[in-house]
Write a structure and sequence with these properties.
Length: 753
């Protein structure tokens, strides 16, 4: 095969052609490999033997391959060729076919058997075997069963190679192509041709436009009903995950589908066709329609389930067998023991919490929510004469009476440190098993009192899972700040529960003496009222504002963070937050620059490349999802303590320490973590950091909003550094996100069923 100019233009400016001589590493799960190649031809000067890395079907020794890609310099291993696309040259000569057949791909076929096959069938042997395996039975030593196995393996391998080329033709890169092929195997082409839209649901990284492009290229008509149904499903999912809508109304759905399909969508799909498509999705149990509102099935049952369980809690009989005087008497005892004096609203919150089956406690920073939580726990212990000392339950079958939980690991840790009582993530409380929960309506968790902190982070799905696992007779207290960002997932549970008048609630709005001296807290309360303080740019003992433009932001942040590290702060004391990931002032750029400044490449430090990320010994990393094998959860931060860049198979390639827990990661699990020198404001929810650095720029205009800015500011425990443009901050606090999320939770709780 000669590499043409057209191929170079399509697949990359550089190519190398040769045979793979040694496998250094190969991951069957994602097709990522590192190989040595003997070079026959190259578009640029290359050594006789080079290292090729990339995602590909496992190559076979002594076969000829062409790799298109680029040269990169690895700090430890030197010059490497990163392949974007790998093509096998079909063996045509006698020697090449013998090498192919005896290369280990075909069980029981060694060099002698391969020579017999080629001597008998000639250089058309591979084509002949694929068409009719019986031609092999004419060769001594090859049974009919063995001939069928050879032919099946040949067809399967050929099908996989054809599938790679087929997917490349739609602009799908090798990593994504490997993901598709590993899912569909040798049926890839047939399944993708039959229904390209299945890729949207089944393959991460494939959206509607890419699937639609494949469908149209396969001859699907622009007015095909399958196309409209796929667009409906995609719009419902995107509106849920990107905007937090639990459902879309019919007119909203039509508008969004029209925008997605573009062109003359209204002409292609008239009202009858649209109705028929929606009805089919309903009949297939993929969509639920209720009063002209269209839900994904899972979100419909989550919202209805949460509403039903909330009504049941509100209607349960949990009267406290104590007089008001007795309750105030217990509060007085606690004040004496702790040396505190509760404000009237705090006492009201404690009494309401223990007098109600369900109660909401809200308030901003410095208003004493944690103080009230501690008081509620002590008050419960005294009133019901139960111990809340964890030591009294060690080695005992008795369930601990008070369950403290939060949506993230860091929030649960803060809760435990503040109260001195055990706390855990909601997922751990529910017994997360990777694909489901141990505790549910038929197997509730144990306990008598449940307190959930950071309730603003609860989406409708997780809230439903939690409420359905609450045992009968348990009191539930939700604690949160209504002015923070809404949940990342669909719904706005805290906001909508607060709108239900039947649910008791207490809002703490007094800033206490120990917090009054904090200019950070004063700033936060000004921001949530939509105002900028006059002293915004004046240096404060715990706050600074550095004015800069977008192109200066990286430099300002680098100087700020490295300066703090030099003064003795740790990587985990200083956290950079940003509203967006991409762009010159996004999380990804900040992470690359901070990694280079704080943990640069070093021959003594091992590292490993994953996509566009480099993970190096000593890097600060963030867990992006709940780990399926270890109690590590979305939002947890740790440090890389070991890297094994030569690990193969299921051996871990790196280890991360999260507090006292050391967690191994296989190469296939590296997508679960990211660098954490900087992180998004959403990912920081539920956490606090001694020092927060938060840029506010016009470049973030589409994301800046009052609750996002407020959330970022309130992540700072001791010192806040704002940098950017004052005008951008002023514009941002005039916008409030999340208030228009579609949800019928309030209506469902209040209406008669």
């Amino acid at each position: 095969m000669t590499v043409s100019q057209t191929q170079l233009e399509l697949f990359g400016d550089c190519f190398v052609k040769g045979t793979f001589s040694q496998e250094i590493f190969y991951n069957e799960e994602n097709g990522y490999g590192v190989f040595l190649m003997r070079v026959n031809e190259s578009s640029e000067e290359a050594d006789p033997e080079i290292t090729v890395v990339g995602n590909m079907l496992r190559p076979h020794e002594e076969e000829m391959y062409v790799c298109y890609g680029e040269w990169r310099e690895h700090p430890r291993f030197g010059r490497q060729f990163h392949a974007h696309r790998v093509e096998r040259e079909t063996p045509k000569t006698r020697e090449a076919i013998i090498r192919y057949l005896s290369g280990g791909l075909f069980e029981g076929v060694g060099k002698k058997t391969a020579e017999k096959i080629v001597d008998h069938l000639g250089t058309d042997a591979l084509v002949m075997i694929s068409r009719n395996p019986d031609v092999l039975t004419r060769i001594k030593g090859i049974s009919k069963a063995k001939a069928e196995k050879i032919a099946d393996r040949l067809r399967e391998n050929h099908a996989l190679e054809e599938a790679m080329v087929f997917l490349y033709g739609f602009g799908i890169g090798p990593a994504l192509a490997m993901r598709i092929i590993q899912l569909y195997k040798h049926e890839t082409i047939d399944l993708v041709k039959e229904n390209p839209y299945r890729l949207i649901d089944e393959v991460e990284g494939i959206g509607f436009r890419r699937a639609d492009e494949i469908a149209r290229a396969q001859g699907m008509a622009e007015n095909a009903p399958e196309r409209y149904r796929a667009a409906v499903m995609y719009v419902l999912k995107e509106s849920a995950m990107s905007e937090g809508h639990v459902f879309l109304r019919r007119d909203e759905l039509n508008t969004r589908v029209n925008e997605l399909l573009g062109g003359n969508a209204e002409e292609w799909f008239d009202e009858d066709v649209r109705s028929d498509c929606l009805q089919l999705l309903i009949d297939e149990d993929r969509v639920v329609e209720e009063e002209d509102c269209y839900y994904l099935r899972s979100l419909y049952f989550a919202e209805y389930g949460l509403a039903k369980r909330t009504k049941e809690l509100l209607e349960s009989d949990m009267e406290v067998p104590f007089s008001v005087g007795e309750l105030y008497g217990v509060i007085g005892e606690i004040e004496e023991e702790l040396g505190v004096s509760y404000a009237d609203r705090q006492r009201e919150a404690m009494i309401t919490a223990l007098s109600s089956p369900l109660m909401i406690l809200t308030g901003g920073p410095g208003t004493g929510k944690t103080t009230v939580i501690k008081g509620i726990c002590r008050m419960y212990s005294k009133l019901f004469e139960v111990s809340i000392d964890p030591k009294d339950y060690e080695g005992s079958d008795r369930p601990y009476p008070i369950r403290l939980a939060a949506p993230t690991g860091r929030a649960a840790k803060r809760m435990s440190e503040a109260t001195g009582l055990p706390a855990m993530t909601i997922h751990r409380l529910l017994g997360w098993k990777g694909e489901g929960f141990e505790h549910h309506s038929q197997n509730p968790f144990s306990g008598e009192l449940l307190i959930v902190d950071e309730a603003s982070m609860l989406d409708v799905w997780l809230a439903n899972q939690l409420f359905r696992a609450v045992p009968a007779g348990m009191r539930v207290i939700l604690v949160g700040d209504r002015d923070q960002l809404p949940s990342v997932g669909p719904g706005q549970v805290l906001h909508h529960l607060l709108a239900v008048e039947a649910i008791p609630r207490v809002e703490l709005n007094e800033i206490f003496r120990q917090a009054e001296g904090s200019s950070i807290i004063r700033l936060a309360h000004e921001l949530k009222r939509g105002k900028l303080p006059e002293d915004l740019t004046d240096p404060q003992p715990d706050r600074r504002f550095f004015e800069c433009h977008r192109d200066q932001a990286v430099s300002v942040i680098l100087q700020t963070v490295t300066g703090a590290i030099r003064r003795g702060y740790t990587l985990f004391d200083v956290q950079v937050l940003a509203p967006i990931y991409k762009g010159p002032a996004g999380v990804d750029r900040f992470n690359r620059e901070l990694q280079q400044a704080l943990n640069p490449p070093d021959p003594q430090k091992k590292e490993i490349t994953w996509g566009e990320s480099v993970f190096r010994l000593g890097d600060k990393v963030l867990q992006l999802v709940n780990h399926t094998e270890h109690p590590v959860y979305n939002g947890d931060m740790g440090v890389i303590i070991s890297v094994d860049d030569e690990a193969t198979g299921d051996r871990p390639v790196l280890w991360v320490r999260f507090d006292r827990l050391e967690v191994p990661y296989k190469r296939s699990q590296l997508g679960q973590i990211s660098l954490a020198y900087a992180c998004s404001v959403h990912k920081s929810q539920g956490s606090e950091f001694p020092i927060v650095v938060f840029p506010v720029l016009h470049a973030y205009r589409r994301m800046l909003a009052r609750n996002l800015i407020y959330t970022a500011v309130t992540r700072s425990k001791s010192y806040l550094i704002l940098c950017g443009e004052k005008e951008a901050l002023a514009e941002g606090i005039r916008v409030v996100q999340g208030e228009t999320r579609n949800s019928r939770l309030k209506l469902l709780i209040e209406e008669e069923w």
